[in-house]
Amino acid sequence: MTFNVTISLFLIAAIACLTEGCCPDMFVGVGDRCYHYSSYKRTWSGADSACRGLGAHLVSFHNSGESAEVYDLWKSYTDVAYTDDKDRAYWIGFNDRSYEGSFRWSDGTSVTYTHWQSGAPNDNRGEDCVSPRNSGSSDITREEWNDYDCNEEKSYFCYVPLTF
Ligand SMILES: [Ca+2]
Ligand SMILES: [Ca+2]
User: Fold this and answer.
1) 27 C-alpha to center of ligand 1: Å?
2) How far is the CA of 145 from the centre of ligand 2 (A)?
3) Nearest in space to 86 (alpha carbons), one of 63, 120, 47
4) Is 19 contained in some domain?
């Protein structure tokens, strides 16, 4: 009997997976991607390694919808103080560490969308790693990117595609 119940639960989980797609443990599904948020702050390289350790990559954005998805998720994880600290945002995979001024996504996907804030990137004292600025009056302006010192420690988002 226990055996049958176990099998049934497994089947239910498998059917849910088939209809909705599956995310790994510690990831949450939004749209066609699975996201993992870490409130623990790391350098960009540390965050990049941590994502790879989960079989994932730092998040990449290819349109404003993906940017909004992650920003909304971040707001849901943080308290209202998110409006008060402009630098309290999260690493994304965009960087120009390999070649100054040539920004790429750490997951190797092509650059089809950028959302720089005015005046960015400015490579101020060698900034090569990108995070939303969390500044401005609307969610869209708060999602605007700035280049930061890669050694700054920030929370971060990893992602994997939803698997079917
Ligand atoms: Ca740079
Ligand atoms: Ca900058």
Assistant:
1) 30
2) 9
3) 120
4) no
